[in-house]
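Action item from last meeting closed. Structure (407 res):
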C-alpha cells in the first residue's frame, strides 16, 4: 500500500480473484511508513505518550488504507465495503499497543460476502470491552488476517509482504539463501520468534491453533500461481515431504548474564529469576550447571534493551539475598539457531553444527535445544560468519533432501 499506484495494483489483483469466483476478505496494512510517521508525531508532542492514545493515533493508518482500497475497487466496478477493526468488531483485551484478539463477531462480514461484496477490514486493530480502540503490536495486520481467516473458516489466508516467501536464512547475510516452498507451522514459529521478521509471530500462533492454511507471497511480483511463495503446513499431514533442516535464524538483540558462585540449594533459581519476572523482563535461555562443592554458576539471556535493568535488579536485590560471588554480563552476544523438524528423527545434527562452528574458530558461549531447534550464543562479531558456515554445512542453498513425514 505504498502509493496510489500500488493501491490500484492491489485492487487489480483483488479483481482477478473476484473474477475467478472467489469470495474475498482483504486486510490492508497502513501505507508504507505511515505507522512510523504517526508514532513519531505522537512522540513529538509527548515523549511518554499514553498507550491508549498511541493506539487511537496509530490505528488511523489502516483506516485510511481500507477506505482508499475500497475506492480503487469501486473504480474497477467491484462491490467493496470497508470496515475498521472496531466496526467488525474485532474484540481484544485491553493491552494497548500489543492487544490480543479474543473474538471476532463475523456475522456482518459474512453477510456482506453473501451479498457479493469484497470486504476490506483494517488490520492491526480492535476494540476492548470498554470500547477503547486497541492495536495488535507492530506487524499486527498479519494477525488480523489470520484471525479473520480462522473465524470465517477461509480456504486459505495469503499474506502479501515485501519478500516473496520464507527463506532458509536472511539473504542479506547469505546471498545463496533459498526460498522454502513449504515450512511447517512449528518451524515457522521458531523462525519467526528467532528474528525472521516475515510474519508477526502471533499470526503464526493463530494459524497453528486454528489450522489456517497460510501462504506468504510477494506483493511486488505479479504472479497468482500457487506454487509461489511459502506454504505453511501442518506436520500431521502425512503426505507432506519435509526437509530435515529448514532454516537458520539469528538474533542480535540478546544479552547474557551469569551469576557466579551460587549456592546449590532449593529456591535459588526462583530467588534469581523471581525478581526478574516481577520486573516484567522476559528471559530466554537459562542454564545452570551441576554444582561442585556446593556452588554453581547460573546464566540466562534477556533482551539487550533490558540488560541494564536486569543487572541492576540482580546487583541490588538478588546478589545480597543469595550471597552469590559475583555477577558478570555481556550485551554483545548473538543467538544463532538451526531449525528443522528433522531433528526429531535424525541424530547428530547438533554435533555437526558444533563441528562447523569449531572449524571457523567460533567459540560457543551457551547452548540450548528443543525438539526442533538447536541454538548457540556466540560473540556478536561472529554472528554472520556462524550463519554462513551453518548454511553451507547443512547445504541449505541446495534443493532439500526430502523425507516423508512420519504419521
Ligand atoms: N501498520 C502496522 C505496522 O506498521 C501493522 C502492520 O503493518 O502489520 O506495524
Ligand atoms: Mg506487515
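Sequence:
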Amino acid at each position: 500500500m505504498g502509493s496510489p499506484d500500488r493501491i490500484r495494483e492491489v485492487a487489480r489483483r483483488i479483481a482477478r480473484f473476484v473474477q475467478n469466483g472467489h469470495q474475498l476478505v482483504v486486510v490492508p496494512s497502513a501505507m508504507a511508513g505511515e505507522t512510523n510517521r504517526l508514532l513519531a508525531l505522537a512522540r513529538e508532542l509527548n515523549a511518554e505518550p499514553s498507550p491508549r492514545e498511541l493506539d487511537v493515533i496509530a490505528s488511523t493508518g489502516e483506516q485510511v488504507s481500507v477506505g482508499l482500497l475500497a475506492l480503487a475497487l469501486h473504480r474497477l466496478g467491484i462491490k467493496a465495503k470497508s470496515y475498521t477493526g472496531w466496526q467488525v468488531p474485532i474484540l481484544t483485551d485491553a493491552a494497548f499497543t500489543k492487544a490480543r484478539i479474543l473474538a471476532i463477531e463475523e456475522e456482518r462480514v459474512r453477510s456482506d460476502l453473501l451479498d457479493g461484496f469484497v470486504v476490506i477490514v483494517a488490520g492491526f486493530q480492535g476494540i476492548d470491552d470498554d470500547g477503547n480502540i486497541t492495536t495488535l503490536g507492530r506487524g499486527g495486520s498479519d494477525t488480523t488476517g489470520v484471525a479473520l481467516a480462522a473465524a470465517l473458516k477461509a480456504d486459505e489466508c495469503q499474506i502479501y509482504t515485501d519478500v516473496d516467501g520464507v527463506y532458509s536464512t536472511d539473504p542479506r547475510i547469505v546471498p545463496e539463501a533459498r526460498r522454502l516452498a513449504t515450512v511447517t507451522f512449528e518451524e515457522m514459529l521458531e523462525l519467526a520468534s528467532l528474528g525472521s521478521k516475515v510474519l508477526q509471530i502471533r499470526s503464526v500462533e493463530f494459524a497453528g491453533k486454528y489450522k489456517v492454511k497460510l501462504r506468504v507471497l510477494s506483493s511486488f511480483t505479479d504472479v497468482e500461481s500457487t506454487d509461489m511463495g511459502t506454504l505453511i503446513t501442518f506436520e500431521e499431514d502425512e503426505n507432506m515431504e519435509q526437509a530435515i533442516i529448514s532454516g537458520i535464524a539469528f538474533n542480535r538483540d540478546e544479552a547474557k548474564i551469569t551469576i557466579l558462585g551460587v549456592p546449590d540449594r532449593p529456591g535459588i533459581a526462583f530467588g534469581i529469576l523471581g525478581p526478574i519476572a516481577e520486573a516484567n523482563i522476559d528471559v530466554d535461555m537459562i542454564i545452570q550447571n551441576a554444582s561442585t562443592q556446593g556452588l554453581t554458576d547460573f546464566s540466562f539471556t534477556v533482551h539487550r534493551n533490558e540488560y541494564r535493568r536486569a543487572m541492576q535488579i540482580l546487583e541490588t536485590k538478588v546478589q545480597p539475598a543469595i550471597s552469590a560471588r559475583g555477577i558478570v554480563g555481556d550485551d554483545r552476544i548473538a543467538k544463532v539457531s538451526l531449525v528443522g523438524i528433522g531433528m526429531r528423527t535424525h541424530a547428530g545434527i547438533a554435533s555437526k553444527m558444533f563441528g562447523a562452528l569449531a572449524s571457523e574458530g567460533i567459540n560457543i558461549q551457551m547452548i540450548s535445544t528443543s525438539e526442533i531447534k538447536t541454538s548457540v550464543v556466540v560473540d556478536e562479531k561472529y554472528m554472520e560468519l556462524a550463519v554462513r558456515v551453518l548454511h553451507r554445512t547443512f547445504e541449505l542453498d541446495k534443493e532439500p533432501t526430502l523425507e516423508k513425514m512420519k504419521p
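Note appended to the action item: The longest helix spans residues 4-19.
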